[in-house]
Amino acid sequence: MIDIKLIRDDVDLVIQKLSTRNKDFEYLRDVKAMDERRRQLLVEVEQLKNIRNEKSKLIGQLKREKKDATDVLDSVAHLGADIASMDQEVAMIEEKIEYALLTTPNLLHASVPIGKDETENVEIKRFMTPTMFAFTPKAHYEIGEQLDILDFERASKITGSRFVVYKGLGARLERALISFMMDLHAKKGYTEIIPPYIVNRKSMTATGQLPKFEEDAFKIANGNGDWFLNPTAEVPTINMYRDEVIDMSQLPLKFCSYTMAFRSEAGSAGRDTRGLIRTHQFNKVELIKFAVPEEGYSELEKMLLDSEDVLKVLKIPYHVISLCSGDMGFGMAKTYDIEVWIPSQNTYREIGSISTAEDYQARRGNIRFRRDKDAKLEYVHTLNGSGLAVGRTLVAILENYQNEDGSVTIPDALVPYMMGVKEIK
RNA sequence: GGAGUAGUACUCAAGCGGCUGAAGAGGUGCCCCUGCUAAGGGCAUAGACCGGGGAACUGGUGCGAGAGUUCAAAUCUCUCCUACUCCGCCA
Q1: Residue A240 · residue A178 · CB < 8 Å
Q2: Which of residues 316-375 of A touch strand B (CB under 7 A)?
Q3: Whole-number Cα distances in Å, A62 to A39, A65, A79, A86, A194
Q4: Predicted model pTM
């Protein structure tokens, strides 16, 4: 969350900065007023508590000396009710402020292009030219069904729509991609992680999924209603360090985290209903970094390159866009999306997203570091990037590596992971 | 799932409702001593968070978390979390 001191100091500036997200933030003026009321109450109630503490001490002393304490007891008796009611008001105000801050998005970095929606995102770079075919390319679900490596019908029988069964070499390809990606990143110094796929409410709150986007998550009945299916490895991996102080010498911490990710896809009814572009359950390899603030943005650029490298090695065309202000995610200060070429749709589609939250998540999750022994604690910067979405990478391979006869060539880099298979036919 | 035990600072650990923001030990830092090392001695070692103040300072909260009893809670009560032991079940 953003620092309440910013609101205290200059609420107009904060509102102005947030306004590029094309939403209304006038309620922050109420937050400022509540904060003032709270501090004023604190001064009053703390004075009363000080009096009570002093008198309590005196009572203890008198009793030890076997003296009469009735007068002091009488004089302190009325304080309790006042303190209790003021405490209650403070708690109520704090709850409201807390909720407002938890539902206020991050401030954007100065380099984020201003724009109203996804149509105004800015292309940063391209890799390769879109794949050309001498025939009409098929969609990945047609290819997958014909090769009998993807089975959507049976998946919907087992569960429902937006699920898939990977079969035979399809299953092997999915598995190969996970290993390939993890190897690629691990070789560059990212520590491999396989975290829990179920996370609790605190974790979801720290990374920003809650309290605002509860309907996007799968909640499960166990865990007193406070357990959720992992929506992205960013959640469990960043929360590894929640409420911790990270030793300065360990920064930047770099992780590549493999998870199965789960999304309710509430609100995307009708979109990408066919195929595995948008499923409730998908594999994802995610890059996560914890960095000192001054290195946050250089680490973001490096992470983008590491993420791109997956498609470079696989030789699949993509471009990178910088999300404009109106399309930015809730908790992030700056985001690059990698979009991969999808021949059947004749367009680029998102396959990865690389972002920095600056200290927004660190403040929510209380993740800090200290520069040296006597230095004050500071919040780290947290970064996350896809490395990549595995299902969508499989889509990109099926479509970009398809042949006229319906077969699919396996990218060279994956052949060793496919037990030598060079083609699916 | 059942039964039990425990959670105090960097670590271990004492702790009677008030004199405990917390004994003691280790560790760590600085200093002394011994030619160096091993060993020994001295001093320091609660931070964090929320406030007030221009500042020096100062108030509040903190003993797994939350609620309660009380003028007063590490200490009493309740709920929860976590770890460990035994039983049951199970990949």
Answers
A1: no
A2: none
A3: 35, 5, 20, 29, 61
A4: 0.92
Q: Could you check: is the Cβ of residue A46 within 7 Å of any atom of nucleic acid strand B?
A: yes
A61 touches strand B (CB under 7 A): yes
Question: Using the CB atom, is residue A57 less than 7 Å from strand B?
Answer: yes
| Model pLDDT for residues A48-72, shown as the tens digit of each residue | 999 999 899 889 888 888 888 888 8
A153 Cβ contacts chain B strand, under 7 Å: no
CA-nearest of A7, A33, A192 to A104 is A7
Q: Tokens 């993509």 belong to which residue? A: A318
- Residue A244, pLDDT score: 86
Tokens of A425: 């036919």
Radius of gyration of chain A (CA): 27
Model confidence pLDDT, tens digit, residues A76-113:
888 888 898 899 999 999 999 999 999 999 999 999 99
Bases of chain B within 7 A of a CB of the protein: 18-19, 48-52, 59-61, 71-72, 80-81
On whether the CB atoms of residues A424 and A319 are closer than 8 A, the answer is no
ipTM of the complex, rounded to two decimals? 0.84
Span CA (A250) to C1' (B21), Å: 32
* Encoded amino acid at A28, one letter: L
Rounded Cα distance, A335 and A357, in Å: 9
**String of b and e for A161-184 (b: at least 16 CB within 10 Å)?**
ebbbbbeebbebbbebbbebbbeb
* Cα A1 to Cα A101: distance, rounded to the nearest angstrom: 6
A6 in contact with nucleic chain B (CB within 7 A): no
State the nucleotide closest to A38 in CA–C1' terms: B51
CA–C1' A88–B74 (A): 24
